[in-house]
Structures are given as structure tokens and as C-alpha cells.
Amino acid sequence: MEQIGYGEHIAETVKNIPYEAAIQTENIAAQLAGTFALPYEQAKALTNVKLKRMADKGEIERLQKGVYCQVKQTVFGRVTPSIDQVMKKTLTEQNGAKIGYESGAFLMNRLGLTTLIPRDMEITTNRYGAKLPKDCHIKLKKPAAPVTDDNWKYLQFIDLTMALADAHIDAEKPELLLTGYAKRQELDGLTLLFTARRHYPAKVILPLIDLLMEVNNELTSG
Questions:
Q1: The CATH number of the domain where 7 resides is what?
Q2: Are 61 and 96 in the same domain?
Q3: pTM confidence score
Q4: From which domain of life does this come (predicted)?
């Protein structure tokens, strides 16, 4: 009966995961271990067996080892969410904590710095060595420092600043877009500079100071 209880718990956990979110073995195993006071390795083994059975029945879809996605039955047949969106979740979050962020031309396009739409989404992540599904349009980049909840916004902004020099930027006033983004992200100027000094080449400091002055001018003029 205990085995059935474990399986039911795993199935219910999977059921409550949003359609476009990744179903990750490690996350479900951690929940199972906490709920039933099991050793993590035992919980992981139970989770692996249950998720494989669910995938074999067509209830979920396996994307790669340890990663699955939801399946919907529609009038047009069996459908699954975008592989890119599902994998983005696994590369940017782990157990609710940040481990990565959008970067490169993909982020520049989203912020309006360029009208070019890149074919691949770039993700800077602690899992930069991960093997991705063959149909996935994501490029992985190693972060300058391990990504955390506390530093990801700062690392992302510094990466963005460094990438501008070699990027195709067609916005009329990219500095205003960057300062606006810094304000929305509520970046602290000193923390930004300390992060840059600790993890990046010295040449990035001056452009950051110039941008921070732009932010300060925007705030005082507003």
C-alpha cells in the first residue's frame, strides 16, 4: 500500500505542474522525500519508475533524462508544449531558486534594443554543460559567477552591457532603454559595480559607470 501511496503522490504532483513548465525528476523526488520522510536516493528511484510508467502510457512526454513535459489530448490529437519553453524553465530555475537568465540577442530583442529576431534563445545558466533535446533552439552560456537569486539581475545587466559593442543595435536611444530596464529591475548601483569588479574584466567598469550616471540623471530630472 505504501508503494501505491508514493505513486499517487507523484501523479498528483505531476498533475499540478503547469502545462509549459518542466516536470523534473529531482524536484518531484525532493517533494516525495520531504512528504514521506524518505532518503532522497530512494525517493528518486521511486520517482524515476513512476515517471517512466506515465511516459510509457502517454500521460507525459520524456524530453531527456530526468525531464518530462505535460501532454494534452485535443480534437487534433496529442500535443505537448514548446520544447524551448520547457527547457528554459529547467535552465533558469531549480527548486524555485534562480540558476540562469535570458541573455544575448534574444534579450536585446525583447528589450527593444534590436529588431533582429535570433533563431536561438541564449540562456546563461549554471547548467551550461547540459545536453539539450535535438529540436531545442537554445544556446547555453557559462555565467561569470554561479547564478543565484541575489545576483542574477546584476550578472544579466552586466552581460547585456558588455554585449552591446558587438551587437546589431538599431534602437535610437539604447541608453534610455537600458536605464529603464535597470530601474524596473531595481538594481543597486554599488552592488552592480562591486559585482562587475569581482567577476568581470576591468574594461566593463567604465561603461557601467556611464550608464549609472544616465540612470541618476533620469531619476533627478523626473
A1: 1.10.10.10
A2: no
A3: 0.79
A4: Bacteria
